[in-house]
Amino acid sequence: MDPALFYLFFSSVRASTHNKKDRRLKGKYSFSHFLLFLKLFLHRMRIEKRNYLLREKKMRGLVAILSAMLILTSCANRIVPRPVYLYPKVEPIEIELRSFSFYPNHIAIFEDHLPFIFRLKNTPQIKHNFTLIDSQKNILISVDVMPNRSTTVTIEHLEPGNYTFYCNRFLHRRRGMEGMLMVRK
After folding, report:
1. What is the pTM of this model?
2. Is there a smaller number of Cβ atoms within 10 Å at the N or the C end of the chain?
3. What digits encode the pLDDT tens for the residues 137-153?
4. Which residues lie closer than 8 Å to 86 by C-beta, 6 or more apart?
């Protein structure tokens, strides 16, 4: 509420109570001030209501935009493409399990280099997992790796295609602990 409107109203009331000489003038003076106050007050309330509705519409639009951004980012591919590490000869493929990431996380190998040997090294102080799945979401390997430990995993045969590996610990995959293995002819 505007303080000037209150002052205008209460000054008219005060003037009307102290004016003892002319009662006729007192009545007209205070009532006209009251009507002016009421008119200004209602006008101010309409402006306030209009501003409130505009702010509410803006907030609804902002909430809709933020919700859409949240939904779209959760639908996006979470594998951050890094350089592809190509392993052309038969050697152990070293994968470092870091805090919520694999290094490297994008690996390409050739099908004719059998068997595939992965050396998994867990460097942080928390337990991680290495799970390899095919395009139909079938689990091919699932190995737990303790903190500051290494383990070796051998795969006898993989068909050409793309495979996903990730950590199956709670929220690790969601935080970015995921990668891609490409097997080419």
Report:
1. 0.56
2. C
3. 999 999 999 999 999 99
4. 108, 109
